Predict the structure.
Amino acid sequence: MSELEVYLDNGSTTKTDSEAFEKMKPYFTEKYGNPASLHKEGKEAKKAINKSKRIIADTLNADKKEIIFTSGGTESDNLALKGIAFENKEKGKHIITTKIEHDAVLKSAKWLEEQGFKITYLDVDEEGFVDQEQLKREITDETILVSIIHGNNEIGTIQSLKELSEITHEHSKNAYFHTDACQSYTKTNLDVKEQNLDLVSINSHKIHGPKGVGALYIKKGTEIHPWQHGGGHEKGMRSGTLNTHGVVGFAEAAKNNYENKEKNIEKMTSLRDKLIEEILKIEKTKLNGPKGSKRLPNNINICFNNIEGEALSGYLNRKGIYASTGSACSSLDLEPSHVLTAIGLTKQEANSCLRITLSKYNTKEEINYVLKELPDVVKRLRDMSPL
Amino acid sequence: MDKEYSEETIDRFQDPEYSGEIENADAVGKAGNPSCGDVLKVFLKIEDNVIKKARFKTYGCIAAIASSDELCEMLEGKTVEEARKITGKDISQELGELPPVKYHCSVLGTEALKDALDNYKEE
Ligand code: FES
């Protein structure tokens, strides 16, 4: 057995804050009413939902009425893309997104393509930054939506939302700007007014809230075509009885992490930079994504030549170190990560990458342990490799 | 990720006994998987038509490393003809069944073996 257990897969999901968990409890057995009901129990739940909306809205510099709750980031992304597409199809059928989106956006875009929409996938440079000139060239009044991921889930690149949304609004009179901010929320600056955003997808379980809940910010005056039909909840935009306990936990986590944002960012950034610096001392390694403040404070993605990623994370796993990989072998379709190939990596390089994603709970001691074990594991696998 | 793997597969992957090279091997074979870029090499020491020693070098996933190790263990002591009959299915079975999506990783082993034995004949 290993000495320590180090969870370094926070880009995948996080541990729920105990404060958030405590806040959720009464909503299971005491305040369990349906927020849509008019009796006292319902009112109580409704109050909790409203309060949670205000909390979430504050973290985005938005208004409470601009927030709707969903089942998570995937639903928020689906609703944003499909909702805008179908609401505006008379104005135009062109949508612009990028080659490095999360599958929730990418596969929604692919599906819309099958429905007759035209999709442009923007290129990125070798650090993962979107090609702004290409955006200017491609966008027209036919364009109804531009959707660009804020902080990339694999390589940590943080896009300049303000510039991108400005280009969008300047060059098309019909285009809305959506960003998938599931990874960046509470980990970098996100302000719907300053950055001029029309739709923002966020998610609870990536920020130490419970799973199964997320939100979509929809700027006042923006209409979207509902995607889930039923009792007309959330002003008809998203039917379905709200997950009250989930929403309450999400809001508590959001508040907690928003209030401590600077402190958490500082802590994660220093652990991140130490890991990057030390890992790059191992020979034949390469960092994917940018360095510094344009990288998510918790993301590290490193290519280890001649080692397959699943095997690497498998050996780390035995040492109690839990990270992830974008290698083809680890995916069901045996395709390497589309993000790593979009930044120009060859198939084999893309297969040799390890992603480490930190949280505020990681400690110096844990990072030292990783740095002690990693070189041996790398050596062992390289000795085994025929390349 | 590894939950879908049997314990036998994980054990083999974590402590492979047959990884390495054989100097002056009588036969060497190689196979690659174009879909995920994996490469597997087998080294054989053959005496009187019997495989005395088998070693591997693999760039690949958990299943590929475990399959390579299992294959080498199965090979030692077998005649060349017997060795030729080993299938991906046999390896997968010995490993307590690979997940279906990983089945091709065991086939990679048999392809490298076939390559080695074909090379051996030529000599
Ligand atoms: S070696 Fe690539 S999936 Fe097994």
Summary: The first strand of chain B starts at residue 27 and ends at 33. The first helix of chain B runs from residue 7 to 14.
